């Protein structure tokens, strides 16, 4: 069997014959000219070299399917991954109670089936909270890890090809939780959400929580005003004031390392307002702050690597730490592009944030509406609207050959991943043409911008 990893976590194990079955079903539904070529069957037993060759071909096949907007978003493909996830984790279909957290720590218990997909669970939570149908799409379920100080570290946004109950229970760690948060970036959409009592309460709880955790910056006078509005239970006014504060609507990430402005700088990255904000601690201990606009990023990619057994390794012997990096190429000035790398276990979540900011910008440019962007009912079943490219994280396959040198494989955004030893640099010259994800919202800088 081949291990399929999605976002760095074992999603499922599948056999060649199961993947061939998926391929035949996709061909039947979409036609042979749409579906990529599938690695051929072999009559004789495969040699170790052929086994590895087949794994690579299957990996490319799965990525090609996932990257195709029609195939990757199809129910056939997504239900295949969900079913395989359930079978691999050996969780039978039964009714269970799943706990979903709100930003203020309140627990919402929903009765679902273990086989319910992300959209079903989101619906169940919304229904329990009395959140109206047309506001459900403004929120998403996120997998988070509880930190020692009572805060949260974001792992990823739950996707359409997974079963939330199986995803969280298969981690066998009570620190992992599912949380409901708003999933848009433009704070003008807050107005839609605040029209309804439940939407207003959810937004208010999230804003209070973000202020308490220090994600939103507040000075003494603003703190006094917020406290007074809180005492009066003026929730809308509280949110309106919070919207004017620094880092409102941003997701804050755990401290990590960047190579900008120089190698090995410690940084706190926040994502919001169509930018990545850096608070960098320079080697001189000086703190500098700056922002990278998503519209100035020409492309980005996520890579993973593990220390080579014979290469330099920062970790103790015998312990292979997966190292994740997000690298983006940024237009620093009119004719100067530069790669900036962030080394963080949350690289995939950062990448998903960038992608969703681009999606939102593109929908606005085309005059689309956010309500339509998120949801559309087709024959009673919920479907993503065509106006939003769903975030695609292609699954990758591990070698079934246990004696092979352990090389971590991980998904990048819409693309393949280049696998390299930690000793290699992340520079433009080691990037293959298909290694990165191009950004459709990229805008050049004109003279008047400089």
Automatic annotation (TrEMBL):
GO terms for cellular component: cytoplasmic vesicle membrane; early endosome. It is a peripheral membrane protein. Pfam families: PX, SNX17-27-31_F1_FERM, SNX17-31_F2_FERM, SNX17_FERM_C. It is found in: Cytoplasmic vesicle membrane; Early endosome. One of its GO terms (biological process) is intracellular protein transport. Residues 381-410 are annotated as: Disordered. SMART domains: PX. Keywords: Cytoplasm, Cytoplasmic vesicle, Endosome, Lipid-binding, Membrane, Protein transport, Transport. The gene is Snx17. Critical regulator of endosomal recycling of numerous surface proteins, including integrins, signaling receptor and channels. Binds to NPxY sequences in the cytoplasmic tails of target cargos. Associates with retriever and CCC complexes to prevent lysosomal degradation and promote cell surface recycling of numerous cargos such as integrins ITGB1, ITGB5 and their associated alpha subunits. Also required for maintenance of normal cell surface levels of APP and LRP1. Interacts with membranes containing phosphatidylinositol 3-phosphate (PtdIns(3P)). Residues 94-185 form the Ras-associating domain. It comes from the Eukaryota. The keyword Membrane applies. Residues 1-88 form the PX domain. Belongs to the sorting nexin family. GO terms for molecular function: phosphatidylinositol binding. This is Sorting nexin-17.
